Structures are given as structure tokens and as C-alpha cells.
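[Q] Does anyone have a clean C-alpha cell version of this?
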Amino acid sequence: MRYVILRDDDTNALTPIECLEQLYRPFLDRKLPVNLAVIPDVSVDAKTPEGKAEGFLFAKNGAQSPRVRIQDNQRLVAYLLDNPGYKIAQHGCHHDCFEFDIESPTEISARLDRGTRLLMEAGFPQPVTFVAPHDKLSRASYREVAKRFDVISSGWFELKRLPVAWWPKYFAKKMRHEPHWRAGNSVLLSHPGCLLSARRNFDSMLEEIIRATDDRQLTVLVTHWWEYFPNGVPNEGFIRRLHQTAEYLNSQKDIEVVSFEDVAKRGLQLN
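[A] Here you go.
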């Protein structure tokens, strides 16, 4: 059996329900879990590393508060809770640029704990998975995240950022050419790039996904809901590719679409 995790980043209090519903109803109806990396307390002026406004803010509609907690949008929270196919991971705290590329354990802990507390106050289970904004974690952040989360999902792992105690397992992973590994108290999952991205060729998108899932025991497919709605307008061609992915995954008898929680609880074969 092969396993696939669908991870969608950047859901936050400003996310329109209609966007998630249009994208993921075909997954939910097929009982395919959708792992949403949720920003607990989003900064309404969050910037990309290039200094541009983050794409997930297109629907902020003149929000004046510098930050908006997920529980401030009770309609969105109710929608997510009413659809148990959505599985909630913690995506940073505010999604400020490189907010976990810092070295102060005190500040790191405060941000991690605030984010978890806000998600739980909204009514979600305690998250077992952490996704860092822009995949940037300092060595100190890795230590603090591993104390709190069973799974760390990232695009890649850099030796210079990892705790020294993790280095032997990192080298062993590299020698075996394995995408996933275990260190500290956590499972560390990488992904083969954002295969479901508006920047990729739509014509070859499904083919690339099939190739990636064929090559791996466990594949994390990463996408971003807001990329399907440039300036708030649905990109029908891109949405169609996402729905074709749902059809493909559902049709494969030797593929099981799972959640991050499944990896943590079931001890799935990783590589």
C-alpha cells in the first residue's frame, strides 16, 4: 500500500468558506482527508520574503486589526468542524515572514503555545503537526517544535539548521536517499515540491503527481488554496486539475489518502 497526504497551506480567519468548499468537496465526498495548515492568528499585513502582500490576504476586505484569530470567524470554524474530513495542522502563529527563523527559545515557545491555544479555543483538537511559514525553522525552533508536535512537515531539511543530536539520523536518511525520517520526538516529512501549483504546467500536472506517488511509499502533496483564486476569481483550469487528482487518488486501489494524524498514530511505513 502507498500513502498520500494532501496538505493545503494558509487557511486563516480571512479565508472565504466558498473557496475551500469549491476546491475540496470532491475530496470530502470521497472520504479523502484534507490536511489544512491553519494560521491561528493571521497578520493582515503578512509579507512574502520578496516583500509583497501574501496571496492568502486577497479577501481581507479592509480588516483593520493587525491580527485576526481563527475563532474570530465563527462561520469558518463551524464549517471546518462540520466537515470532519478536514484535518487541522498548525501553520506558524501569525505567518509573519520567517517568524520561526529565530533563536530565542522563550519567543519561539510563546508563539508555538499561543498558536496551539488559539486553535484549541476555537474547538479544534490539539494539533499534532507543525508547518513552518516558508519552511524556515532555526535550530532552536526545531527543538521546541519537536517537544510539542509528533509530525513536522517541510519542503526540505538543512543540516545547519538541525539540532546536532539529529545529525546522525539525518546523514543516515541522506545515505539511503529517503524523503522522510524520525528525529527527536517527531516524524519529519518532506515533499517533492508543490506539484499542485499555479506556477506549474497544468497539462503535465497529473502526470507529475502520478510519477511522484509511484516513486514513494508516502507522498505529501502540497498546495495553497488561494492560488486557485487569483484576485478572487476562480481559475477553472487549475481547479479542474485538483479535482482530477481527487478522481485519480480515489481510483487507485493501492493508494490510501491519509492524514498527518494517521502517520503519527498508525506508524505508517514512511519510505
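[Q] Thanks! Anything notable?
[A] The mean pLDDT is 95.
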